[in-house]
């Protein structure tokens, strides 16, 4: 359980800042998360209290600075979404603070917010293009596969999905059926189409078919 303490938050923040300077983003984020956890949340009575020093910061400045510095790490480590949340929350906290004391920080956060918005806009455009390209590529592959594997060489005028040597016959006993009018060598395709009914010869074949569909 964390006991809120501005001084502890300040020490953790300095460790995170040192790790960030060394470009150890994961380590920096770890200590900034702890700094935010230890930083007291500003109450209405302490919301406008100025910070006296970096070693003994006010409750408001401790959380504000921790969030602001963490947002810079998040923008580098994880992109704009989490960083934008920290920036927006920090700017919200700054609304009740002295404008002159945090003028530079407000400017920095506003610029960082613009970077986050730009990152998210570019990410959104990229994902849209990626989805579009994926769908187009899937359609191209499907058409190409159909051309290679399921192309009828000489379609029957009455049955375009079948070869010309496949004919429709009417048997008085069996009813309408498809027959071929010549010998068919092994491996030759007759009609590349899906059947209306699939009947398995055994339970094992049924299980294999279900597993293939699930995969």
Summarize the structure.
57% of the residues lie in helices and 9% in strands. It has helices at residues 6-21, 25-38, 59-77, 80-94, 103-149, 203-214, and strands at 155-156, 159-163, 166-171, 175-180.
Would you identify the CATH H-level superfamily of the largest domain? Tetratricopeptide repeat domain
Number of helices: 6
**What's the alpha carbon Rg, rounded to whole Å?**
34 Å
Second CATH tier, the architecture of the largest domain: Alpha Horseshoe
Note the run of SSEs as H and E: HHHHHEEEEH
Query: What structural category arises from helix and sheet content?
Result: mainly alpha
CATH class of the largest domain equals Mainly Alpha
Spatial sequence of strands, sheet with the most strands: 1-2
| Overall mean pLDDT | 78
CATH-defined fold name of the largest domain: Serine Threonine Protein Phosphatase 5, Tetratricopeptide repeat
How much helix is in the residues?
Answer: 55-70%
Domain module tally: 2
Which residue ranges are poorly predicted, with pLDDT under 50 across at least 5 consecutive positions?
45-56
3D structure, described in words:
The chain is mainly α and 215 residues long. The chain folds into 2 domains: 6-127, Tetratricopeptide repeat domain (Serine Threonine Protein Phosphatase 5, Tetratricopeptide repeat, Alpha Horseshoe), CATH 1.25.40; 152-191, no CATH class. The chain contains 6 helices and 4 strands, in the order H-H-H-H-H-E-E-E-E-H. It has helices at 6-21, 25-38, 59-77, 80-94, 103-149, 203-214; strands at residues 155-156, 159-163, 166-171, 175-180. Strands 1-2 form a two-stranded antiparallel sheet. Strands 3-4 form a two-stranded antiparallel sheet. A hairpin with a 3-residue loop joins strand 3 and strand 4 (175-180). The model is unreliable at 45-56 (pLDDT under 50).
């Amino acid at each position: 359980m964390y006991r809120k303490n501005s001084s502890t938050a300040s020490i953790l923040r300095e460790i995170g800042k040192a790790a960030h300077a060394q470009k150890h983003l994961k380590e920096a984020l770890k200590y900034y998360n702890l700094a935010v956890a230890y930083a007291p949340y500003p109450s209405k009575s302490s919301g406008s209290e100025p910070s006296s020093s970096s070693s003994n910061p006010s409750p408001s400045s401790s959380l504000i600075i921790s969030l602001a510095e963490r947002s810079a790490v998040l923008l580098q480590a994880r992109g704009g979404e989490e960083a934008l949340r920290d920036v927006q929350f920090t700017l919200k906290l700054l609304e009740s603070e002295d404008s002159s004391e945090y003028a530079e920080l407000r400017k920095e956060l506003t610029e960082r917010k613009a970077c986050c918005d730009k990152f998210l806009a570019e990410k959104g455009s990229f994902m849209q293009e990626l989805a579009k390209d994926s769908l187009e590529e899937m359609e191209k592959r499907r058409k190409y596969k159909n051309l290679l594997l399921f192309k009828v060489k000489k379609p029957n005028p009455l049955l375009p999905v079948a070869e010309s040597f496949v004919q429709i016959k009417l048997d008085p006993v069996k009813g309408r059926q498809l027959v071929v009018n010549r010998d068919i060598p092994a491996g030759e395709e007759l009609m590349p189409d899906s059947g209306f009914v699939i009947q398995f010869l055994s339970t094992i074949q049924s299980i294999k078919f279900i597993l293939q569909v699930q995969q």
